[in-house]
Amino acid sequence: MQFAGKVALVTGGTDGIGRQIALQLQALGAQVIVTGRDPDRLSRARSEGMETICADLTGSAGVDAVLQTLSGRTIDVLVNNAGMGAAHDFRAGMPDPADDERTLWLNVHAPIRLIVGLMTALQARPEAMIVNVTSGLAIAPSAGAPVYCASKAAMRSYTQSLRAQLKATRVHVLEALPPLVDTAMTSERGGRKLSAQECARQIVAAMRANADEANVGMVRALKAINQVAPWAVRRIMIGF
Which residues contact 190 (CB under 8 A, 6 or more apart)? Predict the structure, then answer.
């Protein structure tokens, strides 16, 4: 897909991977709309020429606000990037059910609701694209983040089914699977991290190529190993 003149909505587009995707799409000529919650980050996005929607997508009200704002508007690209993790590890203490609920809403319910709400607009375009950002942990889970892993695995499954449904239409479906990326969400994590800018570059390259998947960074190796020895991947990732 070529992005000059296209209208792209990037959820969670004021920080991290989403911000870098938004900036790179804008550099390619797209009119970019981003969602976010932080007033300062939203203001920065507006100063950079992006349209902004203040919305908390961890509940239905935020999704409704986005859909109401975009009602009747042209949308060519939907990037479901916004996501969060929840501490859900009984070895460290009792999980907070409210955090689990927010995680499931943001990572699963919100992107599906946005896809349903914007599908008519997307199908009306000569070409359109849906990008669902999942995770390498959608392939094999880690023990320490079961709710996050489950939410990303759910979106991976949904994305594959959606792609099959829309195969004969003008709406292309891409799944992006990042590795551990240097963002606010991973600030307390150690280990080797990919930069948000490089992660976004690989995702946008896959978008331009109309790829089905963007296996980013080390996820390429993970996916290759999983095809021949899934038991090995599960053993490695469960302790991640």
Answer: none
